[in-house]
Amino acid sequence: MAAVTKSGLDKNNKYDRQLRLWGDHGQSALESARVCLINATATGTEILKNLILPGIGSFTIIDEHKVQGEDVGNNFFLSKESIGSSRARTATELLSELNEDVSGDFIEESPSNLIENNPDFFASFTIVIATNMDEKSLLQLGELLWNLHVPLLICRCYGFIGYIRLVVKEHNVIESHPDSTHEDLRLDRPIPAFVTLCDSLDMSSMNKKDHSHTPWLIVLYKYLQQWKDSHGGELPKIYKEKSQLKELIRNGVLKNKDGVPEDEENFDEAVRNVNTALHPTSVPSDVQKLFKDPACLNLTSESRPFWILTRAVKDFVEHEGKGALPVRGTIPDMTSDSERYIKLQSVYRDQAAKDVSDVTRRVHKLLQELGQNPCSISEKDIKTFCRNSAFLRVIRCRSLKDEYNPETANVTLIGQHLEDEDGDDVVFYTLLRSVDKFYEKYNHYPGYYTQQVESDITELKACLSKLLQDWSLSSTVKDDYIHEMCRYGASELHTISAYIGGVAAQEAIKMITGQFLPINNTYIYNAMKQSSTTLDL
Amino acid sequence: MSAAMKSSLSNKLQQNVSSCKILVVGAGGIGCELLKNLALTGFSDIEVIDLDTIDVSNLNRQFLFRKEHVGKSKSQVAKESTLKFNPDVNIVAYHDSVMNPDYGVNFFKKFKLVMNALDNRAARNHVNRMCLAADVPLVESGTAGYLGQVTVIKKGLTECYECRPKATQKTFPGCTIRNTPSEPIHCVVWAKHLFNQLFGEDDPDQDVSPDTEDPELTAEAGEKALEKETEGNGKDLERKSTRVWAVENGYNPEKIFSKLFRDDIKYLLSMEALWKTRRPPEPLDWSNLSDATPSSATQMRDQRIWSMKECGEVFGNCLGKLKVDLAAQGEDGMLVWDKDDETALDFVVSAANIRANIFGISQKSRFDIKSMAGNIIPAIATTNAIIAALIVMEALKILNDQFDKCTTVYLNRKPNFRKKLLDAGRLDKPNPKCYVCSAKPEVTVVLNTQKITIKFLEEKILKGDLGMVAPDVEIDNGMGTIIISSEEGETEENNEKLLSSFGIINGSRLKCDDFLQNYNLNITIAHVEKLEDEKDFMVVGDMAELQAKLEENSKKKEEGTGAALEKSKEEEEDDLEIIDDTEAMETAPTDTSPKKRKADELDCTPTAKKQKKSIGGDGDADVVEIL
């Protein structure tokens, strides 16, 4: 990441508040991202705004439409003067003003033309975001991008309803940022250098200052050994046993000449950490699943770095790791003198470095065997991968084709939601699908022409019944919802666009940075109730 | 109003939207998004107030601002940028603090609705009171990193902003900062105090020299140290204030360094009682600083740990530059510490790390210290966009007189276990004992009447904790003795007097009146000799609550888990915060728990461990508690 932006501002200052969420490497990923937006609708420009501000590399708007009065009413990035001119061009110009370090481009063409005549065009994008596309073109685009391995984010605002669908064959997440994690301390299978360090310290001969500044990790290890010695080498497992160990530690606190225990914070910390620190070292089930994934087992010359790294770590676990993942290498803050804290820190850091070098050797070997460039995976990437190896995740979305084909649609889930009294967010999914059927038939959305609302209600009902019938669902949808849907008349309200603009841009950032878990795969927002639902369709 | 809006809103609501006057308080992260949303929803009579100017670090999200606007008024530029696209909207912009007495109850009464887009608790408290006094509905909001919240406040119908006690902004005991730091944050706080002592506003609470009144010292030990000091050098100079001393020495880096990091440390070492169970600090010598770097030197300046030698050089350079900056302010000028000012930040980074090294505390990078010292809350465009949209939805319900449909909404970092990214809940009823919105506000303040001065009562308790702006206070003793007057100069001679000198004892009652906020509060004084954790005072709802609190404290102590989730919060940052835990978030962890979030919201409450970690400033602390 260059220290200074094109615009001459210090990047660390300009992006300071976000670097604290996704780091320099997340920012670099963002800065090399190429984002494609189909249709500069209010929703589309709001999403782009939220991607341009944090500094994506470039964006391209595909839009064949001219700016209309309606657009100016709900789109901040189109002004009255622009009515009649190209929507793609106007939006590109105004959005570009938001950040001089982002380059913008546009194509005045319909997406279906591009799909038909220049399908490779889409291959170069990091992500494609589509708004207001008709069902047929959307399915075509979905299939094309699916095969190109380019993620597609479909976004839509319809009255007070917002909708987002992520379509990607496979997305790998190295830094999933789990909410809570156990420290990787390995007290159940201590690092050899840790044992040496602990053995070199004799707490019984320490003066008061040293005694109360021995890191709790060492204190805990010492008393754990005592406990094991009197329990046939077993670790405390159940609550009662852990309580006994805690008691043992408490009894080790120095006493003053009157026999009253001193205040030793390191011992308090040791007691407090018994439960979490004795969490057995294991390969989490999500990661075990990845080890058994065909993509990991059957590497090819086409395999992506993620899977080569996963395989290298798997092989490490089965050999050098003796059943455990590479050591994470960090320890928590604790009461200690700095000398021993630093020693302790180096024990873990050195072991982590050693594990990384073992994995690196395996990575290079694999790359060679596969005929890939042995330098294609950097030292830094391997390090990050090893440090996060317990939290690796793979997202595989269902394809649009599967969702839209009644044979393969996730009908059971939809049915459950429709039966559920609370499930009305999903009702709107079925209604969105119904208005598309309606559009296909009548070439306008229900309620769009105020004079036809009554007949549109009847027709929309019919479309919905047909859809439910295709799904073999016997559920019913209250008339109120159908009326409401017709009342919307396919209007795009700015506030709803602003909301979806925020949520969808955040999902795009997750996809681009490969950090945090994206929504898999559908998100529905109901602004009347301020509620939202995610579901896998 | 757009055709789309027209088809979706009832006629009456459309009418309300296009005709009503509304106030947006704050033109920052949320404020910019909100102005855009309001203009495009059909609102056409908007006033916006913000006292802030635009900073480079705003540009990653405050989209109405560009590079060329840096340094200009946020409210003015926000207005101009909004009008550029929506020339039909009427916007009045005030570049001012909403707490300025010019904006009284009558000002607030002009509005049909007030929307907060603020970043600090003091202003939130104030606007809350103004809206209660004017009986205008308020939409309150805040964001922090990926988290956010929106809620609605309506006098008599819902909780007000102050109905539930918020985690108080914990400060560190003075003697921990001055004598016995044990965590990096202690050194950072000390370094910021040092900046103020040398260049900023003089605050006796921010003394950086060794504290001879440390409760850990027996009276004798303290006196002994004092004696030593008086017979030794410079005692008088120190009492003269660090500032005067520094000026007299021309901010000579070697002299200042030697005093702070050698002589003062040696002096601390003479307080032997402090070091019986602690690692004693090791004084440093200006001419002999180590250039050993704690970690690999290949990384960026912001990310790596500096050697002592580098710290010393930076410290010296900064003193030189800040001296010039200070001189440029003219006589009686002062500098205000700003995390976005390179020199001010470098000064704190170097001083904090030197002190950390002396006390054997782990050193921190410039990046981390910026976050710790500046209480930076991560802030991104996406979260603000989402929250500003939610605000408008609540506003529409209010204008439609649908208070029963209004909600308090939390934005989670990711869908919770019920697959909800948003958690919307009904608004709670007002707390009948609230010391702000109840019919007869009452509060008990626990303190030592023989130690607390009138000035302390006014500045720290009434204006600080209790959020008043210009209080008048009389003793409810039948004689109406006025001890504090909002009229300048009327009661100044009382400032340094102790409460006890006015006959204030345990059980005394004070009648406080803040004319601007149209707020009357009766305070009952509970006298105690000493409070826990060196606190000077404690505000409690009533005596029953006090009892409960005391019991809880003693229980905590028994368990010995002083899992002190401390926050160091001293100032707040951006958009964040209704989150009042702005503090929480960011670098500055806080107690999150008291908020009664429903069970399904718990998944975003941080664990104690995580919070603790965030104190250290590593990792992103997206902790939140909002409101």
What does this protein structure show overall?
The complex is a heterodimer of chains A (537) and B (627). Chain A is elongated and about 95 Å long. Chain A is α/β, with parallel strands linked by helices. An 8-stranded mixed β-sheet of chain A has the order 3-2-1-4-5-6-9-10, sandwiched between helices. Helix content of chain A is 50%, strand content 9%. In chain B, helix 3 packs across helix 16, helix 8 packs across helix 14 and helix 14 packs across helix 15. Chain B is 36% helix and 12% strand. Chain B has 627 residues and is an alpha/beta fold. In chain B, the strands form 2 sheets. In chain B, strands 3-2-1-4-5-6-7-8 form an 8-stranded mixed β-sheet, with helices on both faces. Chain B starts with a helix and ends in an 11-residue tail after the last helix. Chain B has 3 domains: 213 residues, 3-Layer(aba) Sandwich (Rossmann fold), CATH 3.40.50.720; 179 residues, Ubiquitin activating enzymes (Uba3). Chain: B, domain 2 (Arc Repressor Mutant, subunit A); 100 residues, Ubiquitin-like 2 activating enzyme e1b. Chain:  B, domain 3 (Structural Genomics Hypothetical 15.5 Kd Protein In mrcA-pckA Intergenic Region, Chain A), CATH 3.10.290. At the A-B interface, helix 1, helix 2, helix 3, helix 4 and helix 9 of A face helix 1, helix 3, helix 15, helix 16 and helix 19 of B. Chain B: Belongs to the ubiquitin-activating E1 family. Chain B: Its main location: nucleus. Chain B: It comes from Patella caerulea. Chain B: One of its GO terms (molecular function) is ATP binding. Chain B: Pathway: Protein modification; protein sumoylation. Chain A: InterPro entries: APP-BP1, ThiF/MoeB/HesA, ThiF_NAD_FAD-bd, Ubiquitin-activating_enz.
